[in-house]
Amino acid sequence: MTQSVVVQIGQCGNQIGCRFWDLALREHAHVNKEGLYDEALSSFFRNVDSRKSDGGGCAVGESIQHLKARAVLVDMEEGVVNEILQGALREVFDSAQLLTDVSGSGNNWAVGHMTYGSTYREQIVEKLRKAAEHCDCLQCFFIIHSMGGGTGSGLGTRVLSLLEEEFPEVSRIVTAVYPSADDDVITSPYNSVLAMRELTEHADCVLPVENQSLVDIVNRIKRMAHGEKPGSVIKKNSTIISNKGGLSGAEKPFDAMNNIVANLLLNITSSARFEGSLNMDLNEIAINMVPFPRLHYLVSSLTPLYMLADVNVPNRRLDQMFSDAFSKDHQLIRADPKHSLYLACALMVRGDVQLSDLRRNIERLRPSLPFVSWNKEGWKTGLCSVPPVGHSHSLLALANNTCVKPTFMELKERFTKLYRKKAHLHHYLHVNGMEQSCFSDALGSLDALIEEYQHLDATKDRFIPDAIRLSIAS
Known about the structure:
4-stranded mixed β-sheet; Tubulin_FtsZ_GTPase; 6-stranded parallel β-sheet; nucleotide-binding; Rossmann fold; disordered C terminus; Helix Hairpins; cytoskeleton
């Protein structure tokens, strides 16, 4: 069994990371009834025996003593990390995994990337090495951060480049939360475009998540929770699978949104954490999904997004779940893959689903999905036998699709509005090591990325749908 390390940076990254660890522990507790430290747990948790003077870990097969998350938590403000340390997850982390400051990055990419990146470089590398040393076979780093804030975008991408320097052979999968157009951080377009250049250069895969998409999903679930349609009433506190931080009770503003992103991580790591008839190795995601190194932005969609309130209402048919995964309502970024070009697609299924069900649905959906001519068989599939808590099955679809281009074009437009007037530029240029060329280089990198997607889109007119296959009566 391989291990992975989660690196959560900034307020947003740590809040999402907190939800991930909470839900992951709940999933393992649901399956692991004997209290033994098994291979599934070892993929993301260490089992530490406090009785050992060196704080050493226990071997697989021994009783669970103290589970420690394979994680590094970084924030240049103390608030969120302190909150985690005072909450239910306080035992899951220790001081060797944490790095905080008090002043924050002031919504300035340059402060996070240049100032804090230089000041804390050695400490960050040391914590990453410690986390790696506890792994027998380190397979992947999961980096979680926002794009709009200073610490998330700036220090987050600095940590990403450090990981490439220190662990060049280990996969780097980034979950990056993009701000909405009405974001209250005025400088978020600068921060996002400066961060985009780093993501394009140093990540193996990026899972972009848009705040507005999360808001839309949560609002849709709230409407359903009030029972607009007979038979579609859902549990009010059941955003994905969580019983805490859901849609009722003393929730915090972003709890429901963070649950959705945490479940993206739960699903993408399910094959690494549990057994299945067709497990998908995390390294296989980049190998199969990224035909060109810079075009590694994957659109993710999740289904189901809620639990039904009435247990007598039958689960949606399996085929409907596959259809939902290709609908815009279930995507974590506002885009339309069906009217853009697919480079590759991955389906990660959890629960009691047969390989024949998976193949049947791929054959059913394939004719309606425009794939590049040279990769019509570009499907990657994974089957994990353990479903999310409260569900019989679930599905995560990952699409490498040119539909991300409008998101990047909108980001460029918002950046240009500020940059044309040189508004707020002085805040960045006062930071040691930051030059105006950083802005022009970042914009140039984004332009080149958009152009690569446009070049592929231009070939879409030559797309010929598969011929309709004859049904053979049995």
